[in-house]
Amino acid sequence: MLLLLALIFVLHLTAIILLFISTAHNVWWTTNGYSIDIWKQCFYTNGSCVNVAYKDKEDYLQAVQAGMVLAVIFTCCALLFFICQLFTLKKGNRFIFTGLFQLLSCLCVVTAASIYTVQFHYYDQNGWYGSSYILAWICFPLTLVSSIMYIILRKRE
Question: Would the CA dihedral through 98, 99, 103, 109 be positive or negative?
Fold first, then answer.
């Protein structure tokens, strides 16, 4: 049982780290001349970044930003709830509260990544999706699997 709890904890920490990287790193879309994240758009001139804001899609961008930030917050809260429930739950109870917060994080990630996929760079042929975008999509199944594991998991001695 201790090994299972350790594996779930490592899976949860992995999801948190990947969500932090995906939210903060600036490689959601990249080309040879610039890279874009959910916070700014950088055009490289003389080795420095010139910030250019999105003109027509600021509402969608704010939805993506909010979704990713909420995903990080919900995942961190779920980890804290897991640790608290680990010591306070009675034997035989499930980690429902932790699983629900992790499921909320999963929904926020998939919503943010879906909005970014549909609204940004849909017809752009000059670039490719970056590592942060791919990490966001990897975080979706990680948080989904961990939320299901928390909901199924019962506390045993």
Answer: positive
Q: Using alpha carbons, list the distances in angstroms from residue 143 to 83, 100, 122, 136.
A: 17, 11, 26, 11
Distance from C-alpha of 49 to C-alpha of 37, rounded to nearest angstrom: 13
The type of residue at 146 is S
* Token couple for 23: 């939210």
**Phi and psi dihedrals of 34, rounded to 5?**
-155, 165
Residue 17 half-sphere exposure toward CB, CA atoms < 13 A: 6
Residue 18 corresponds to which tokens in the numbers above? 């990947």
E-strand stretches of the chain:
29-30, 34-36, 41-45, 48-51, 128-129
List the one residue out of 134, 25, 116, 22 whose CA is nearest residue 75. 22
> What does the pLDDT look like over 69-121, one tens digit per residue?
999 999 999 999 999 988 888 887 888 889 999 999 999 999 999 998 888 87
Tokens of 83: 């640790």
User: Which has the closest alpha carbon to 35: 46, 22, 21, 25?
Assistant: 25
143, 71 contact by CB (below 8 A) = yes
What pTM value is reported for the model? 0.86
